[in-house]
Design goal:
Structural class: mainly alpha
Shape: elongated
Largest sheet: none
Radius of gyration: 18 Å
Distance between the termini: 27 Å
Number of helices: 10
Number of strands: 0
Strand content: under 5%
Helix content: over 70%
């Protein structure tokens, strides 16, 4: 517990000290919500009877949370490995699970803060999001989504050796996934073949689960399927993360 507390504190101080990180974690994704929300304010998606904000708010929220989880752990592992911090930690009784758990806790806190911030802005009259009674069910989907993307981030952070490499790999994953999974554009407006591709992406299920819970645009089966899919992605990415993890650049 002492090691966990120390690592959690170090993660927190490193996060709040870097103003650029704070901006890209909270303000940058929120800009997408504001821009898209203002562009499509009061408009309905053709043939669905639902407002654009019902798609955009949960989609941008999912992308922002997943992005923060992946980038956060990837940059941390890369930097700690380059600075030999991981090698020094390995020489102590601190297990790998404690190292990852400290970052996981931080990612969950960041995800919850992001969710409250995003939903709070989307509820403003200018955007017009209306929460369904099932909104608390978004929390387990959010937790599973953070876990899945954190596992993916461990893989990226274990293979990339420079900040530029982390940014390039992470962006090549998250940017296409955002468009293919319906974060910026309702999935129903995409061609059928693109919708089929999106079924292989974790962000699609995070979007579907959170959107259904927040706006009531589906049923409990959709939330259950999304949660199960995210759990499955977590197992796959978690297995790969353990297999690819490196304590130093020479290992």
């Amino acid at each position: 517990m002492t090691a966990f507390a120390a690592l959690s504190t170090a993660n927190y101080k490193a996060s709040v000290r870097d103003k650029t990180t704070v901006f890209f974690t909270f303000a940058f994704p929120l800009l997408f919500l504001v821009v898209f929300g203002l562009i499509f304010a009061g408009q309905e998606v053709e043939g669905s009877g639902r407002n654009y904000i019902d798609y955009i708010a949960p989609g941008v929220l999912s992308w922002g949370v997943g992005n923060a989880a992946l980038f956060g752990i990837a940059f941390t592992l890369m930097q700690w490995r380059n600075d030999d911090i991981l090698r020094l930690i390995r020489m102590t009784p601190t297990p790998l699970t404690t190292v990852l758990a400290s970052r996981y806790t931080g990612a969950l806190v960041i995800g919850l803060v992001q969710a409250v911030l995003f939903v709070g802005v989307a509820l403003l009259p200018v955007f017009g999001l209306t929460l369904a009674g099932s909104w608390p069910l978004a929390l387990p989907v959010l937790l599973l989504g953070v876990t899945a993307f954190l596992s993916m981030g461990v893989i990226v952070g274990s293979r990339a050796n420079t900040p530029e490499a982390v940014a390039a790999i992470a962006n090549s994953i998250m940017v296409p996934m955002a468009f293919l999974s319906g974060s910026f554009l309702p999935i129903d407006l995409m061609p059928g073949w693109l919708q089929n591709i999106s079924l292989a992406l974790p962000l699609r299920y995070m979007n579907d689960g959170i959107s259904t819970a927040l706006t009531g645009g589906g049923d409990l089966a959709t939330i259950g399927l999304s949660s199960a899919a995210l759990a499955g992605f977590t197992l796959v990415f978690g297995f790969l993360a353990v297999r690819t993890f490196r304590w130093s650049n020479n290992s």
